[in-house]
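Sample intake sheet
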Amino acid sequence: MTRSRQAFATPALMLLLAALPRSVQAAGEATDLNMANTAWMLTSTVLVLFMTIPGLALFYSGLVRSKNALSLLMQCFAITCVVSIAWAGIAYSLAFEDGAAFHAWIGGLGRALMSGIEVGTVKGSIPETVFAMFQMTFAIITPALVVGAFAERMKFPAVLLFSLFWLLLVYVPLCHWVWGGGWLQQRGVMDFAGGIVVHVNAGVAALVAALVLGRRSGFPHTPMLPHNLPMTVAGACMLWVGWFGFNAGSALAADGTAGMAMLVTHLGAATGSLIWMLCEWLRYGKPSVLGIVTGMVAGLGSITPASGFVGPLGAVAIGGLAGVVCFIATNFMKRTLAVDDSLDVFPVHGVGGIIGTTLTGVFAASEYGGVGFAEGITMGQQVQTQLIGIGAAIAWCGTVTFLLLKLLDLTVGLRVSHEQETEGLDIGVHNETGYNF
C-alpha cells in the first residue's frame, strides 16, 4: 500500500471503529455501549431541554400581558433548577429503579443521589448518565407546562413548592407506572414519548389549578391579549425543533424507529397547524398567527404517545383530529365555561394527549402502517388498555393535585394580593420590568 493510501486508510479505519459498539471494539470488555446511539441521545437531551428554556419560556412569556412577561421566564427557569436537583436526588430512582415488592407502583431508592451511576455505567446501549439526564428533561418540562394555567396570579414560593411536590407525588409515580416497569406498562399501555406521562398529566393538573385558584381579576370581561406574539412564535419554533428530540429521542437509539418517530412528529405538527388555522379562518373570517402556532402544539402533543408506533397515515389523522377537537375545546372552555386556564394548557395538551393516546390503539395497527400490537391483542383490546391508562392518569393526577394545592393554600398561600396582580408580577414579585420604554 502506498503512503498516500495509508494516510487515507488510517483515519477511515478509526472512524469505522468509533462507529462500532464498544463491545466490538474491545474484545472481552463487558459493555453494550453504542457510540452512535450515545451521540444521538446526547443531542436529543439538549433538544428537549431547549424546549423548556428557552422554547416554552418564550412561548408562554409572549402570551401574557407585558407586566407579567418576566414572571413566566422566571418560573420556567426556576422550575428547571428545582426539578433538576430533585431528579438527581431521589426522583430518578423512584421512577426507574426496581422497587422490589412495590415495583408495580413505585421504584426503589437504589439510585438516590445518583448512587451507583459512574462513567462506565450503561443503561441499554447508552451511558446511564445520558439516560438519566434525558429523562430529567421530561421531568422538567411537564410541571413547566402547568405554569400556563395559573399564569399572572400565583405566588412565586407556591410555584416552586407546587412544582417540587407535584414532581414527586404525581409525575414520578405516573412515570414509573408507564415507563419504569409499573402496572400500566405491564398491562401493555402504549405511550412512546409522553401522551399520558406528560400531556394528559400536565393538562389535568392545569385544569385543577385553574379551578382552585379561580379567575384572574377582570376575566373574562377584560381583554387579556398576548403582549408579544413574535416572542411567542419564536418560542413555538423552538418547541417544534426541540420536539424531535422529545419523540425521536424516546427510541433511545439511532435507528429506524427514531427516524419514523421524527417523520410522524413533523407531519402531526404540520397537520395540526393547518387544521387549526382553517377552523379559525372559517369561524372568525381570518387566520391568526396565534392560532397556527397553537395548532402546532396541539398536533405535537397528540402525536407524542403514538410517535414510535404509527406511520405517516396515522400521524396526519391524529394531528388533524387534534387540530379540530383542541380548537373546539379551547373555545368551549374560554367562552362557554369561562374557565381561566390562562394559556390553554388543558384544552391543548390535556385534550391533545387524550386524543393521541387513544388513537395510538387504532393507528398502531399494521394495516394503517403502524408497528402492530402485541401477539393476541386486538385493536379493541388495545384501545381499552389506552383508556385505562388515561383514566388512571386523570384520577391520580386530579386527586393529588387538588390536595396539594389546598395544602399549599393553607400554608404559604396560592394567590398574590390584588394589588400585586393589578400591578403585575414583574414589579410586584420580582421588582423588575421586562420593558423600559
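Comment: Confidence is low (pLDDT under 50) at residues 1-30. The chain is about 70% helix and 0% strand.
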